[in-house]
Amino acid sequence: MISLENVSKRYGSKEIIHNVSFNVNKGEIVGFLGPNGAGKTTTMRMIAGFTAATSGRVMIAGHDMADQNYEAAKKIGYLPEHPPLYDVLTVRSYLKFCAEAKHIAKARIPSELDRVMQACQLDAVVNREVFKLSKGYRQRVGLAQAILGDPEVLLLDEPTAGLDPGQIQETREVIRSFGENHAVLLSTHILPEVTLICKRIAIINDGRILAVDSPESLQSAVAQSNKVTITAIADKDELKKTLVAIDGVTDAMVSEPSQNTGVVKAVCHVAAEGRIESKIAKEIATRFELLGLEKEQPNLENVFLRYVGKN
Amino acid sequence: MSGVSAIYKKELANYFNAPIAYFIIAVFLLGTGYFFIYNMFMTGSASLEITLQNMGILLITVVPAITMRLFSSEYSSKTIELLMTLPIRPWEIVVGKFLGAASIFLLMTLATTINLIPLFLYGNPDLLATVSGYLGFILLGLACIAIGELFSSLTQNQIIAALLTWPVLLGFWFVGHFKVFQQTGFLRSFSDYLSFTGHYANFIQGLVRSESVVFFLATISIALILNTSYLKGRR
Fold first, then answer.
1. What ipTM is given for this predicted complex?
2. Which of A95, A218, B15, B134 is an S-S bond match for B21, by CB 3.0 to 4.6 Å?
């Protein structure tokens, strides 16, 4: 549904997006991940047709953005970085304007407005002017505008910015249900969000796409820095000696025992391959009282930091 | 066309949900009322000639206040990003906004016709000159609005948009006076042709000249076309 082929954007002599290529298919939510200033918003704007690509091709549902942006615009729902709202209009009249501009048939507009206002939980503010709304509501009015008319392609630039945890969860549900039979591109720098709802992730930094893959395979690609944490009742030095003796454990750090329980905590750096954690468990359990063992997975944060070159 | 009507309705809602439209209309009517009464008592003749002349210059000072927000406010509130990504063509945006501002202006003009009641009640004015005078006033206003809209699309600052529009409109108003300094016949007739005052004076005197109608319609079209291509070029 969304396809970018070698897309570049130049302002003057400065190229800020370099040869970006990726696709978003129907029924797929793709997370667009990158630090601030990486080019997420510029790329989103090119896909939405707000700015034109200097070179390369942006295709939306078979329409080339360069010369068919009017046809393409009919397929797109877009929530920009700053929700584009008219302060003096009420929520209803604002959404009505968007519905008319999206060529939704007059008879369908009232039911369509009800649908999006319910999906985005706007019932309480329907007749309030936009300038009186809180940041969270503004964001949700923006989202309601984007999903108006059930567009095939949904572009969301940081849709959960400014929302509280409850609202984030509700918004995520809206996006998740929308993603089941639409193409959704979601830009964010909130990592857990991506793992929760995205099928694939595109990582961008300095205007270049560094990786496009599922969250799981991105995680396994950086699984070298595994850590195993152990809690046990044991003598501190004995435990350390035992741990380093195990084949595969490269280093171990043991904390001071807790004063009233005598529990110590040890963090071992281990080699990635093999089932080292079961070997450690066996070894410790025979000699000390093992209370807990946890293998730390590389989270998306490590993945992200590795790709954007800050690790 | 549905894009034009969506934009048009939004513009009207924007004007009337904020105090600015009421304020502008009030200022204009106050000024017009003053000129009307002053001219009636000064000249003692039942003619709108001088009053329409005064209304023209008043209009030129008021129009930038109507048009300055048309595009500038879209830029500063980032709503331009919505307009440019909705399935609306750039010309539909430009025309919809033009019609929105034009409606405010026409409403204002309509309100001034209250002056005609005592005029026709107690005097014997030239009906045709009054009608053609009003036609000229409307054409003049629409041309000023198209120019104001164009300048509003060049900056995200409303004040700057207004400050750019004023000198241009005043230039068109006074350019006719330059003809006395011109030596060549071409420049004389050219500065005469560009002059709002010259064309408007014809209408006030009861002369509806096709040349003047074409001049105002051409000014409107050129401004709207430039505006549309500027929007397209922003992508």
1. 0.89
2. B15
Phi-psi region of B226 (alpha: psi -120 to 50; beta: other; left: phi over 0): alpha
Question: Which of A84, A93, A145 minimises the CB distance to B78?
Answer: A84
Residue B119 confidence class, pLDDT cut points 50, 70, 90:
confident
Determine the average pLDDT of the residues in B1-13: 91
In the prediction, which pLDDT does A311 show? 42
Residue A129 pLDDT more than 60? Answer: yes
Interface of B with A in 73-92 (CB under 8 A): 77-82, 84-89
Q: Would you call A97 and B3 a contact, using CB atoms and an 8 Å cutoff?
A: no
What residues does CATH 3.30.70.260 cover in chain A?
227-296
Q: What is the DSSP string of chain B?
A: -HHHHHHHHHHHHHHHTSHHHHHHHHHHHHHHHHHHHHHHHHH-S---HHHHHHHHHHHHHHHHHHHTHHHHHHHHTTTHHHHHHSS--HHHHHHHHHHHHHHHHHHHHHHHGGGHHHHHHHS---HHHHHHHHHHHHHHHHHHHHHHHHHHTT-S-HHHHHHHHHHHHHHHHHGGGGGGG--SHHHHHHHHHH-HHHHHHHHHTT---HHHHHHHHHHHHHHHHHHHHHHHHT-
Q: How far is CA B22 from the centre of its chain?
A: 17
In a 3-state reduction of DSSP, which class is residue A53? coil
Range A182-197 average pLDDT: 84
B-chain CB neighbours of A97 within 8 Å are 6, 9-10, 13
CATH of domain A227-296: 3.30.70.260
Among candidate residues B72, B213, B205, B190, the one with its CA nearest the CA of residue B140: B213
Q: Do A85 and B77 touch (CB under 8 A)?
A: yes
Asked if B17 has any chain A CB less than 8 Å from its own CB, the reply is yes
Mutate to test the interface with A, among B7, B80, B86, B95 (most CBs of A within 10 A): B86
Domain range A2-221, CATH architecture: 3-Layer(aba) Sandwich (3.40)
The full set of domain ranges for chain B reads 2-233
Report the candidate in A131, A47, A127, A49 with the shortest Cα–Cα distance to residue A86. A131
